Amino acid sequence: MTQGPEEVATRVLRDALKRIKDHEAEWLSMLCEAVPSYSPEDNLADDGWDTDCMDEIQTSQAFDAQLLLRTLLAEFEQVAG
Prior knowledge:
mainly alpha
């Protein structure tokens, strides 16, 4: 059965939400494992090595998030177009 535009849009949005949540969960897990003093609530870690490591991981995550957003944007444009 062929899906209508609303069903396709709903599926794409649900998939995007799952991918974003999975990305965030993976990133937080990696950050908490690599930086034991990291506090997700405060977005802080102990000064010194922990903050340097946290900054590196967050920079890497920002690039990964940017790639994810570009991919999702392309998929949204394909559905909308």
